[in-house]
């Protein structure tokens, strides 16, 4: 394998493993900023050594072991060999190739949840929590985060640096809180897990349309949280949403990694076990007897797709009504865009197009690639192929995901061809 190809492989591994490594090191040093630096050191070592020695059989364990050893070396250099250090050292299992399976089943997974609760502490603003989450847990660069939120990269970088400094200065504990403190952070934690899942479901940038391992990790954390607070409806709502959406992951791309749109997916290949689990989680949420929250409403929308055997069986009128309820609870231009899609499917593309056109005056959607993408889809359904092609091309220029860009350009070319034949 060439050096450049090895480096690309290492970067892919790092993207998958870095949240666990940062969480594991944070447990040792109790400083999330320092933990990220140490984890990055492990990555640099891998980039130096692996091209010569080859990629280890279990690269995640190798990176974790290297990072933890550097963390312990740092503690020793800082002369922290007191009783507290001895106790911490006893807690920590240095991961080797032989015991990786045991290690992965225990400490790492718990540490990820602790890290999320740590980064969701109320000493941080919502903007800081989101930026730190996307950086540490989803592995996005500051540039990718900045483009996602249409803000300057320097602003994102400052938020992340300040957030890490604040957590350290306030000595925020690396733990899952209990009682009232847990309740106070719960909505922020749910938002973080939701962000993780969405980044896995539709990657912001890069060569892959999806990042299934990130979805799996978010879903696992949601399930753990549901066991910790079984009386919280929205926890079950979020789990239901992730279970149901995960059921479609394998059908969202073809063998070449190219995206497959929802209406074109082979529903026979949807994971029925995950669908049953999702519907059960939604039922548990409803049995708690409270008004459906935003996550539960989105889960109910996803359930409409999950139970439809064919695209034509989809209850789009119910989906439109659910989006109307969601827009009242969580008003946002993106919810309105999704509602426009549902209206277009339920009552005809002309009605959907009216709603989409009204959203073009919304400043926050100025750089959002799905706005022209949705408009292109509606225009295509109306037979306005040249206009549709222009919208697809506009959307392709906005997205950072290579697979999505290729799909949009392919749809634009198809519309150009249809328009030429008309």
Automatic annotation (TrEMBL):
Domain (DUF6596) spans 185-284
Stored InterPro entries: DUF6596, RNA_pol_sigma-70_dom, RNA_pol_sigma70_r2, RNA_pol_sigma70_r4_t2, RNA_pol_sigma_r2, RNA_pol_sigma_r3/r4-like, WH-like_DNA-bd_sf
Looking at the record, the residues that make up the RNA polymerase sigma factor 70 region 4 type domain are 115-167
Q: Which domain of life is it from?
A: Bacteria
Q: Which residues form the RNA polymerase sigma-70 region domain?
A: 17-79
- Per its UniProt record, what NCBIfam families does this chain match? sigma70-ECF
PANTHER family hit by this protein: BLL0085 PROTEIN, BLL6612 PROTEIN-RELATED
Provide the protein name: RNA polymerase sigma factor
Query: Taxonomic lineage per UniProt?
Result: Bacteria, Bacillati, Bacillota, Bacilli, Bacillales
């Amino acid at each position: 394998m060439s050096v450049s190809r090895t480096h690309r492989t290492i970067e892919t591994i790092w993207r998958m493993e870095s949240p666990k490594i940062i969480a594991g090191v944070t447990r040792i040093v109790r400083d999330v900023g320092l933990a990220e630096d140490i984890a990055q050191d492990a990555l640099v070592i891998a980039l130096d050594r692996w091209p010569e020695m080859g990629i280890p059989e279990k690269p995640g364990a190798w990176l974790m072991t290297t990072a933890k050893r550097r963390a312990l070396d740092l503690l020793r250099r800082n002369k922290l060999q007191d009783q507290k250090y001895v106790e911490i050292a006893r807690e920590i299992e240095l991961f080797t190739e032989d015991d990786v399976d045991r290690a992965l089943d225990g400490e790492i997974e718990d540490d990820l949840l602790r890290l999320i609760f740590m980064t969701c502490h109320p000493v941080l603003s919502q903007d800081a929590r989101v930026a730190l989450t996307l950086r540490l847990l989803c592995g996005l660069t500051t540039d990718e985060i900045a483009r996602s939120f249409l803000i300057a990269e320097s602003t994102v970088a400052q938020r992340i640096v300040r957030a890490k400094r604040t957590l350290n200065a306030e000595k925020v504990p690396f733990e899952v809180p209990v009682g009232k403190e847990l309740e106070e952070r719960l909505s922020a934690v749910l938002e973080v897990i939701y962000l993780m899942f969405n980044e896995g479901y539709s990657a912001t940038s890069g060569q892959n349309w999806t990042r299934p391992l990130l979805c799996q990790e978010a879903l696992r954390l949601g399930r753990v949280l549901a066991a910790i607070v079984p009386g919280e409806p929205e926890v079950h709502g979020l789990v239901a949403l992730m279970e149901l959406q995960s059921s479609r992951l394998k059908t969202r791309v073809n063998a070449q990694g190219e995206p497959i749109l929802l209406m074109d997916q082979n529903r026979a290949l949807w994971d029925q076990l995950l669908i049953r689990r999702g519907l059960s989680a939604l039922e548990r949420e409803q049995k708690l007897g409270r008004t459906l929250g935003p996550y539960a409403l989105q889960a109910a929308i996803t359930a409409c797709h999950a139970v439809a055997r064919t695209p034509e069986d989809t209850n789009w009128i119910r989906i439109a009504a659910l989006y109307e309820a969601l827009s009242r609870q969580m008003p946002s231009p993106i919810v309105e865009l999704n509602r426009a899609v549902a209206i277009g499917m339920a009552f005809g593309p002309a009605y959907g197009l009216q709603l989409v056109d009204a959203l073009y005056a919304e400043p926050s959607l100025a750089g959002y690639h799905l706005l022209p993408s949705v408009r292109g889809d509606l225009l295509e359904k109306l037979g306005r192929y040249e206009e549709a092609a222009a919208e697809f091309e506009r959307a392709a220029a906005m997205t950072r995901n290579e697979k999505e860009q290729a799909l949009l350009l392919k749809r634009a070319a198809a519309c150009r061809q249809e328009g030429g034949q008309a």
